[in-house]
Amino acid sequence: MTAEPKPLLIRFFRALLALDRRWIFLAVGALSLIFLTINVRLPIPVSQQSRDMFNVITSLPPGARVHLSIDYGPSSQAELWPQHVVILRQFFRQRVKVIASSLWADGPSMIERGFREVLEELKKEGIEPKRGVDFVNLGYKAGDRVAIAKIASSFKETFPVDYQGNRTADLPIMQGWDNYSGIDLLITIAVGDPGATEYIQQAQSRYNVRMVAGVTAVLAPQLYSFYQSKNLLGFLGGLAGAAEYETLAGEPGLATRGMNTQSAVHMLIVLLVLAGNAAYFYLRLHGEKVR
Amino acid sequence: MENLSPFTEGLGIWLTCLLTLAVFSFLYRDNPIYKLAEHVYVGVAAGYYFYQAFRGTVYPNLIQHVADGIQLLNKGDAAGWTAQWRWGALVLGLLVLSRLFPKISWISRWPMALVVGAFAGLNLIGFAQANLIDQINGTFLPLGGYMTGKAEMMPFLPPAGKPGEASVLNHIILVVGVLTVLTYFFFSAKRSPVLARIGQVGIAFVMLTFGATYGSIVLARISLLIGRVQTLEESNRAEFGYPPIVSAVLIVVLLAVWRMVYFRPSDDANIEPEPARKT
After folding, report:
1. How far is CA A63 from its chain centroid?
2. Which A positions 24-63 lie with beta carbon below 8 A of chain B?
3. B105 has a chain A CB within 8 A of its CB
4. What is the pLDDT of residues A18-74, one digit of tens each?
5. Which residues in chain A are contacts of B222 at CB distance < 8 A?
């Protein structure tokens, strides 16, 4: 026996299903703006993979060499820039030597921006790493997996000059090593292909180099299997991963601020999905044809 | 580190706000302001990618390398010959361009064959190691007993607040998940009722994975929106004349003018309507 249809509810559900999607865009936009301006701090639980990544980076001794591959551009900076900044800051505070490169054409400018902004901040703390001695931007290299395989065999042959045009063979930071046997940690901050999976296939699994990664949320589910098989010692997934890392580092920043909005918009989307399904099933239950 | 001049910074902020809001105007409907932003993006990206490929790869790895080799040869050093084989790379690169001439376009297959072969060879080794061998190793999990390097036995349930920690239940779920999903995709034997049932469990795991991926995609898309809104909020500076607010007003006015004066309903007819779903 079906219940007597309630006209008001039916009218409401019909209106809901006929709602112009532009109202939803407007609601999401307005919610983002509101939650970015109000100062609410929601708790951020830290996942095991983020904690592991933090522990791996924290355990690096001063002078350790890190290959930081920045494999993203401005189009995905919303998710990856907060990860990039918080990790780079930690490297310089720990006096780790950073060898940065990119497999994406728009990566070198992100590397430069990262160095510029983080060094500007750290100057106030009296930390002033030197280009060519403590860090280097090797720039972009075309070739995808082939480029990774070449990097793994020889950094200096793959990058004869750095992004500023200096010969890499002459740089103090490049002395005494030339391949992954001289690298203590490989880290890629990646948006897609080539990125974390390609580095695992061409570098980590072949040369057994310790590796962590920071990726967009879309890529994160693909990395759980590599984390389970210990190819990756830890990873960050999207803005949430960056917020977790900021929590661990005790430096709430861009990502932590963005998570309030993230939570609010997620709640809205969940409510809309539930309301849409309720409307669909309710109207069908009462014999209406629903698209 | 060089800092940007106020003029360059201001110009960058204004362009950022105008182009961001121009792209957002698509949410109203396809319009010339959005089209302009789209074309600017495609043009700038193509030019920028070409420049970066030349600066990062062609110049240092080909031109400079060969030039250094020639310098060595001029000094009488025979080691300079080793750099000259890269002329071969240039020739192969130029052969790709033969596609532009239909009569000799078949020549482009040679360099492409080399690229495909090298790519396949490299991928085969990396894929077999990381996606096959390492994953099989990762699935050989203990379902009980003492934990590695620890004196205590593996707990049945993961510790509170650490759902990803090693535990008997987690390992059982993982092993059952792998085996049932593999069974679902096993097409070399007749689907007996038992295999079909196991496959059904496997498809449930696949669905859970799709659900997690969908959740991650929502997370990523909202993050992109947050990033843009954060940028607009940070750009709202008095010294540059409140670029986001002025840009928003400008775009709304331009959209209104376009809608009232230039818009033809037939423009929308070019967009294919969504096919109606059967109910």
Report:
1. 25
2. 25, 28-29, 32-33, 36-37, 47-49
3. no
4. 888 889 999 998 998 888 888 777 788 899 999 999 999 999 999 999 999 999 999
5. 28, 32, 261-262, 265-266, 269
